[in-house]
């Protein structure tokens, strides 16, 4: 059983997921005064959601968990996150359906902010679960070959695989629920989402390096292992 810093990292990981799912209910656009297209791909304006600045942190923390504690411990954290997200959705649904007090005037706004369709819930949960599992498995498999060397390859490689799986599955399930009704729009949605999430993690790579380096020195349970990657 992992000890040391595992619990606070999992707590931050789970909190990031919950906050991201709430912030994501807001649509956001940048560079709305510009229009740039590359074939069917719309470059500007950039359309995203209110969690764009936070959600990549979940994958960064997933990388840290996989690198320091191994696949089993990272998988356990993914299960925790999945369970908490599911509980959050259920609680939100119950809170929305509870009869509003006569003095409460924000029922519609409350429903709009934390309410979501079953299709979007399924998309978010499926994308998160598959993406995080791919991210963790890819990182530990690369580490099995590179050992303690080439951390950058593990971080970038796992990000590319995990984020692509997450984005593709989420967009495939959620597309019709958010109004995407053509292949060109779908391709744009997948590519822009994937590129942004991957770029965000690459930008903060120096910070991830420092966090992992510090944990390797200070985490009492950390030690390089010869156990097969997906069993560690």
From TrEMBL:
Keywords: Cell membrane, Membrane, Transmembrane, Transmembrane helix, Transport
Membrane topology category: Multi-pass membrane protein
Subcellular location: Cell membrane
A Pfam family: Vut_1
UniProt keyword annotation of S-adenosyl-L-methionine present: no
InterPro entries cross-referenced by the UniProt entry: YhhQ
Segments traversing the membrane: 51-71, 78-100, 120-142, 154-180, 186-209
HAMAP family according to UniProt: Q_prec_transport
Biological role: Involved in the import of queuosine (Q) precursors, required for Q precursor salvage.
Family per similarity comment: Belongs to the vitamin uptake transporter (VUT/ECF) (TC 2.A.88) family. Q precursor transporter subfamily.
NCBIfam families the UniProt entry points to: queuosine precursor transporter (TIGR00697)
Protein name (database record): Probable queuosine precursor transporter
Source organism: Nocardia iowensis
């Amino acid at each position: 059983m992992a000890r040391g810093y595992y619990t606070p990292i999992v707590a931050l990981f789970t909190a990031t997921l919950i906050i991201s799912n709430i912030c994501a209910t807001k649509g956001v656009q940048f560079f709305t005064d510009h229009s740039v297209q590359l074939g069917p791909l719309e470059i500007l304006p950039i359309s995203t959601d209110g969690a764009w600045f936070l959600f990549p942190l979940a994958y960064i923390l997933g990388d840290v968990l996989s690198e320091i504690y191994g696949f089993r411990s990272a998988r356990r954290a993914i299960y925790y996150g999945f369970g908490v997200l599911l509980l959050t959705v259920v609680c939100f649904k119950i809170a929305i359906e509870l009869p509003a007090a006569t003095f409460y005037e924000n029922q519609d706004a409350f429903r709009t902010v934390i309410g979501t369709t079953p299709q979007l819930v399924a998309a978010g949960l499926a994308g998160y679960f598959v993406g995080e599992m791919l991210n963790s498995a890819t990182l530990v498999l690369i580490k099995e070959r590179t050992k303690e060397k080439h951390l950058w390859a593990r971080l970038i490689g796992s990000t590319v695989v995990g984020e692509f799986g997450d984005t593709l599955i989420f967009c495939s399930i959620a597309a019709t629920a958010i109004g995407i009704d053509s292949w060109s729009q779908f391709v744009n949605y997948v590519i822009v989402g994937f590129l942004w999430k991957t770029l965000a993690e690459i930008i903060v790579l120096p910070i991830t390096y420092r966090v992992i380096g510090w944990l390797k020195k200070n985490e009492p349970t950390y030690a390089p292992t010869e156990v097969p990657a997906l069993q560690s």
